[in-house]
Amino acid sequence: MVLSTRYQWLLNRLKSMSIREILYRAVKQIETGREIRAFRRGIFPPVPPPVMQPTKCWITVPDGLSDKERYAAAANRIIKGSLRIFQLDVDADAVILNWNRDPKTRTAAPMTFGKTIDCHDRALVGDIKYLWEPNRHLHLPLLAQAYRLSGKGVYLKALKLHLSTWLAQCPYPAGPNWSSSLELAVRLINWSVVWQLIGRADSVLFEGDDGVRLRDRWLSSVYRHMAFISGHFSRHSSANNHLIGEAAGLFIGSNTWPYWGKVTGRWRRTGFGILADEAVRQVHPDGAGKEQAMAYQQFVLDFLILSLISAKAAGVSFPPAYSESIERRLAFVAAMMDVAGNLPMIGDADDGYVVNLSQEPDFCPYQSQLATGAVLFTRSDFFRKARRIDDKTRWLTGAFAETAMSLPSKALDTKRAFPEGGYFILGRNFETADEIRCIVDCGPLGYLSIAAHGHADALALYLSVGGAEFLIDPGTFSYHGGDLWRAYFRGTAAHNTVRIDGADQSLSGGKFMWLKKANARAATFEIAPDRDVFEGSHDGYRRLSDPVMHRRKVVFDKERDILSVEDILECAADHVVERFWHFHEDCKVVLNGGSIVAERNGVRIHLTTHPPDTRLSLYRGDEVPPRGWVSRRYEERVPAVTAAAENRISQTTSLRTDIHIQVQGKVADREGRDRTESEAP
């Protein structure tokens, strides 16, 4: 069964490739064969001796941090042996004893040639996400920050222990930490932060014979990292956020350690060129990322922003289109964010971050990027959405961070249509305590032929009232937590849209692959003083034996606060139709006759379905099949109510859902705390 599943995946993967890609991968396999033979003989190209030279830092030790003691407290927890990996508290001492072991399953990966390790084989490597996460070294900058802020050698000593054990246990090119260029790139960026904060080549960490040996071993590994990335970029159908991340790691690495002459210069130009091209290629003109995943919008933005800041420090200028692509991405995030800072969890999310530079308890990565964007692009509207200058922004922009707070006030962008990305915003009183915001998703499934991080969510909608989320996207949960859960959270039933005959809108070919994709198209979007109207369709169910076309019309009546959703199913035979509505986990939801009533923080919505013979059901925390869940963090899910409205149709049919919104004077902030309207932002 395992073999047949593996072969089916390989067949599906081949179907997703062009002839050009197949030839490219065949050539890479030949190259890998040569590398394997060299690995077995222990013959590798030597690392040239570095020629040290002055460099400028792109990380700044800032004034005005919210609480410097938080860095020491968090670093002390690491020193005492506590490390948080996703939703798991692990023994940091156990991690540094074996960097090649998954701390979740305690499976030790083989130290064979890294590029040939099957990192999706749980029996071989455990849960690769849990193995890779500590090896990204996201926690090492924290130790460096604590050292720089306090001057205490205990943090430098801890850094030395983590670095030296990693270098000893992870020799090039053996083991799982030499299998993915993206993982190397993220690690390299975090090493760059550490290198700068501890004083670069002149750090006291490198004093004495032991210190010199550590520096030499570290620089040798840095060289190997950059050489590896430059030879193993994600290309063709895999050229998504991975390619941008890999180029960012190579570019930032070559700016931080330009110690190998022409070789470093070549790597810098390569990384620069890929970043300049892909920053524009992977974003729609309206600013939505082409992967159709909000979390990956954040992930990619960090790579692009850090590369821009690194370039400025190195005296390198990106073309204007590069910076413009970042600004467009940020403007899209700002427009999609409700008054309390919530964003719909569209597409995949794995809690992936490039760097962790803030220890603020209420840190929001999206608002942080808007704050950084406010500084970089002098955008007061971004600052209004961010609400404050966070600590991460201070580390990245230094004294310039304060300029955002003194920018002339500018009205927030009211853009509500993102036709290329496929998002349309209906509602009223935006950016006030009385805001009603409905977002309709009518975009592409995802990016490139496999659409790896897209969900089967065409024509889904999301609703928040005064910053309190009601109708939500339940999120992702896990990539490797079981096929059943992966299929559910990315499937149609986990979104506020229509499912036909129990099938997803798009046909999956694997955990990160879609074979047959629903094509969504927006037909109408009208904004008027009294109402907003959206109309769109998708053809995902045209593949059925009796083809079905799904059309959805959404009308928001601004005077009566009624959201009407009409679903038209064009068909000629019998079908089972399910309309799903996923409620925020804090909503109290009950069936009341032929209606569903949901309450949260003084806001109530009545959801009424038509025709009257619709079968209504509520689910909460069901395991088999999965129904009634929300996942706001990777590997964490909590029960939440899902409403299902089921009808059996035999020909073209119109189904309607009316959502009556009643606001009773209270709203919620991003953490869900009750506030009166006078306290709202």
Question: How would you summarize what this structure contains?
Answer:
The chain has 681 residues and is α+β, with helices and mostly antiparallel strands. 36% of the residues lie in helices and 21% in strands. A hairpin with a 2-residue loop joins strand 9 and strand 10.
What key phrases describe this protein's structure?
single chain, disordered C terminus, 21% strand, 681 residues, five-stranded antiparallel sheet, eight-stranded antiparallel sheet
What report would you give on this structure?
The chain has 18 helices and 25 strands. With 681 residues, it is α+β, with helices and mostly antiparallel strands. The chain folds into 4 domains: 1-43; 63-232, no CATH class; 284-413, no CATH class; 417-679, Beta-galactosidase, Chain A, domain 5 (Distorted Sandwich). It has an 8-stranded antiparallel sheet with strand order 11-12-13-14-23-18-17-16, with no helix packed on it. Strand 16 (588-592) and strand 17 form a beta hairpin. Helix 7 runs antiparallel to helix 8 (153-169) and helix 12 (261-281) packs across helix 14. It starts with a helix and ends in a 5-residue tail after the last strand. Its main location: periplasm.
